[in-house]
Each structure stands twice: as C-alpha cells, then as structure tokens.
Design goal:
There is one protein chain. This protein has 506 residues and is of the alpha/beta class. The chain has three domains: 5-233 and 299-312, Rossmann fold, CATH 3.40.50.980; 339-402, Luciferase, Domain 3 (Luciferase, domain 3); 408-504, 2-Layer Sandwich (GMP Synthetase, Chain A, domain 3). Strand 14 and strand 15 (313-317) form a beta hairpin. The longest helix has 17 residues, at 29-45. The chain starts with a helix and ends with a helix. GO terms for molecular function: ligase activity.
Length: 506
C-alpha cells in the first residue's frame, strides 16, 4: 500500500466531498487531488527524484496537508521539522538528511533563510498567497504552473518519511518510517473501533509535524474524514474551530486539555459535535480527566501510548475503560498490530506487577534511525524496539508506564519513579502542574526535587511535603520543593526534565 492510494480511491467514490477546511477555505477531494498532482509535478521540476528528502517547516494548514501528499506522489521522502526548533537545530536536521528542498510558510521563513546557506538546501518553496522573496519559489505558482503528473506510487517497505525525535537529550534522531509502518499502526488502531470516526471531521490542533497528529491524519484519510486545521494551539481558537466546523474528533495532549478546561470563555462554545477525544504523551491526571468530561460530555476518551519509532501507537485505552478509576491510570492494552512486553536488563520477560523496560515488536516498528547504525542497533534488539520506558503489566494485561528509565531517581539504593510522585502532588488543590526530578545528594546519591506550578495563591513547599506523607513512602517524598511559573515542554506536551536537571546541576 502507498500513502496516496487513498486519494485515488477517494476521488472515484466521493470527489465532491470536503477533504480540508482551513481558515474558512474548503477544498473538495477532487480539488485536493488536482493540486497534489500539480505540486508533485512542480517538485519534480525542482529536482526532487525518488527517495530524495523534502523538508517541511510550517504551521498546520491545508497546504501542509497537500505538501505531505505531494512529496509522496512525486516519490520523495517527507521530513517534517519541529516548528519550535531554533535555527541551529533546523540546520542540523537539514544537513543530517541532506534535504535539498524545503517547503515553509511566511512565519518560519526567517529560520529557513538563516540556515539556507549552511545547509544542502537548493530550493525554498513558500506557502503564501503573495510573492515570495527573491530566489524562492511560490507554492501557489508551483501548483498553477504545472499539469498534474502521474503518481509514482512508491509505497510498501519504501521509506515514507524521516521523522525527527524531540532531541531532548542531545541531537535529534531521524526515525525512518515506511508506508507499511504507518499503515500497520493506523489499521491496528482502527480495528478496535475506538479510534477516529468514519467520515468524521478531524481537528488538527496538535502540530502536524508530530507523529501523534500524523497518526490521526492517516486514520482520517483511510476512513474518508475531513481534515480541519488550526495554525496553532490557543484555547479560544480550538474551541471556536470545534463549534464552527462541527468537529467530531481531536487529538490533544493532557496539558492542552487542561488549558482548555481553564479557559474562562469555554462555556460559550458549542462543542456538542465532539464524539472522540484522543490523547497521548502521558496518562491523564484525574483532575484533568474530570475536566475533560465536564467540557466534552458527549465525547469518548481514548488514550494512545507509543512513540515516533512505533509509527506511533503501541497500546490503547478505550472510552469504557476510562470509567474504571484503576484503569484510567494505565496506558491500556496492546493494540491489535503490536506485541508488547516488559523485560529485565537481560531482555527476559518479567512477571505481572514487576517493573521493567517496555519493548514492542510489529510491522509498525521503524526501520531504524537515519544514518545511525549504532543507535539503531541499541534500540532494535532481536526484533524488539526498546522504548526506554519503565512499566509493568497487571494481571489483566493493562500496561502501566511508571517513568522514563532515564528519569528514574535512585535514593539510597531505592528506585523512585517520578510519575508516581507527580500523581500525588497533582491531587493537591494548590498544584496546577509539576515535574519531579533527581538532583545530586552527598548522602543519598540523589534526592527527590519537585518543581511546582501553583494554582493561584497558597502553594507551600512544606505543606506539599506534608501532603505526601501517608501517600508515599518516606524516601519518595520530595526533599525539596521549588515553585516555578511554568515548565518547559516539547511540542508533544512532554515536560523537558533533562533541561530542568541541566539548569540545576552546573
């Protein structure tokens, strides 16, 4: 199977059906297919051949959607880049994958312009209605100036894209995913009947360069959905889009959901059309889960656990399971397409209830990291992707992810999982958000340090420590509590604990 195959089926069966909605602009399946074929032809004229990398650095839009499809139509390999990266990070990724063409928008154009001369980029294509700067190519003129080309039809085990991981612990790594990888994950999720709504309207509020949103984009293509885009996450913008476009499905991370719940204007929006709220990145704190249910009473909640290297889903927790408090704290069970185990340091599977490393096997697992054979070999061992997550299964096969292995804190020889401490702190009414990290300690090796974002006034470190007593073993209670205005997060909404540690250990 190949990515653009879904377009050919769609144009035969529902040519007039709306495929994209963005900023008041609606394009049908037929219009989109025509534009994608023309854009692909333009990319070929710019020198994009089969297997060549084309980078995308732009905010969400219908043009981003068209670019993803056009690169595949032309036989190229798409490289979606993180829009929050600074110039040096963008330069590294472009050089690492040898991308010769970059498709960008006016907002990100200064970053591309800053790195163009020191990266292998030959051509910059600008998504805009106006004329681009001298020496760059207009996206719309590229479409308007070419007749549609035949689809190359490159698919199967061939590489679809290079998707760079967050790079929170060093340089980002490019996960190489094939067409088969992303379709295996999508079909497995859809087989549960608990993923995206067939023929629904999917809102892309999370960044489209991130594989979590890419997953629902693929699922929406397969099930005949309409893709609604907003060019950035704001609570008012997301809620307004749900109301305006009668959105049925949206993917968010828990931090986004909490921001929506805290929006003072939330109640004035009609969000009754929403039937599915998919989230990932971390289990939903109980308070956020309750807020999501109050805000979207008609929506079933689905948690997807995985990572970029898994294209991206490994386990799913469905709507009914969210009604069971014990299960709501889990990451769900293995999705139909995935084998999931928990193993010890020797790679042997451990018993239920025993914490070990989560490993995953299946047709959705990446081929490897782009031009990084040693790191590929370290991550892919005996056919299993080693996630770096610490977790355990219960007797019913539900996976509980307790921490990143690298984030585990060792206090006097005892393991402390930061997520466990965070879950207790989040139960206190004065805590809006928190992160727990390990800091060096002369006596115990490491000490538990909590960074807390207060919810209004009244947060107090000693009070929070006292709250933990009786809820956590003594060695797990934070020795120190630091009040902060905010926590640094990745585009996927994950707190950058490595940065927090680095800023405090110098």
């Amino acid at each position: 199977m190949y990515l653009t195959q879904v377009l050919h089926n769609a144009v035969r069966h529902r040519a007039a059906y709306p495929l994209t909605m963005f900023d008041g602009r609606v394009r049908s399946v037929a219009e989109c297919v025509d534009r994608v074929g023309r854009l692909a032809a333009g990319l070929r004229v710019l020198g994009v051949g089969e297997g060549d990398r084309v980078a995308l650095l732009a905010a969400n839009s219908d043009r981003y959607h068209e670019s993803l499809l056009a690169v595949a139509w032309a036989g190229g390999i798409v490289v979606p880049l993180n829009t929050r990266w600074v110039a040096d990070e963008v330069r590294f990724a472009l050089s690492d994958c040898s991308a010769t063409v970059v498709i960008t928008d006016e907002r990100l154009l200064p970053v591309v312009a800053a790195v163009r001369q020191s990266a292998p980029v030959r051509t910059v294509v600008v998504m805009s209605d106006g004329r681009p700067p001298a020496g760059m190519v207009s996206f719309e003129e590229l479409i308007g100036g070419h007749a549609p080309m035949p689809d190359v039809g490159r698919g199967g085990a061939e590489t679809l894209g290079v998707f760079y991981t967050g790079g929170t612990t060093g340089r980002a790594k490019g996960a190489v995913l094939s067409h088969d990888n992303v379709f295996a994950s999508a079909w497995g999720c859809l087989a549960t009947g608990q993923f995206t709504t067939p023929g629904g309207r999917l809102l892309h509020a999370a960044p489209m360069f991130h594989l979590a949103d890419f997953a629902i984009w693929i699922a929406g293509l397969l099930t005949g959905g309409t893709h609604v885009m907003v060019d950035g996450f704001t609570p008012g913008g997301v809620l307004a889009a749900i109301e305006r476009y009668a959105v049925t499905d949206v993917l968010l991370v828990p931090t986004m959901i909490q921001v929506l719940a805290d929006c003072p204007e939330a109640e004035r929006f009609d969000v009754s059309s929403l039937v599915r709220l998919i989230y990932g990145g971390s289990p939903m704190p109980a308070a956020t889960l309750a807020a999501a249910r109050r805000m979207f009473p008609g929506a079933g909640l689905v948690q997807a656990y995985g990572m970029t290297e898994l294209a991206p889903v490994a386990t799913l927790l469905g709507p009914a399971e969210h009604d069971v408090p014990r299960l709501a704290a889990s990451a769900g069970r293995a999705a139909p397409h995935a084998e999931v185990r928990v193993v010890d340091a020797a790679g042997d599977e451990v018993a239920a209830g025993v914490v070990g490393e989560v490993v995953v096997r299946g047709d959705h697992v990446m081929a490897g990291y782009w031009q990084r054979p040693e790191e590929t070999a370290a991550a892919l061992r005996d056919g299993w992707m080693h996630t770096g997550d610490a977790g355990y299964f219960d007797d019913d096969g539900y996976l509980f992810v307790v921490d990143r292995i690298k984030d585990m804190i060792i206090v006097g020889g005892e393991n402390v999982y930061s997520v466990e401490v965070e879950h207790v702190l989040l139960q206190h009414p004065t805590v809006a958000a928190c992160a727990v990290i390990g800091l060096p300690d002369a006596r115990w090796g490491e000490r538990v340090h909590a960074l807390v974002v207060p919810a209004g006034d009244g947060a107090d470190g000693e009070q929070l420590r006292a709250f933990c007593r009786g809820r956590l073993a003594g060695y797990k209670i934070p020795r120190t509590v630091e009040l902060v205005a905010s926590l640094p997060v990745s585009p996927a909404g994950k707190v950058l604990k490595s940065r927090l540690r680095q800023e405090r250990v110098r």
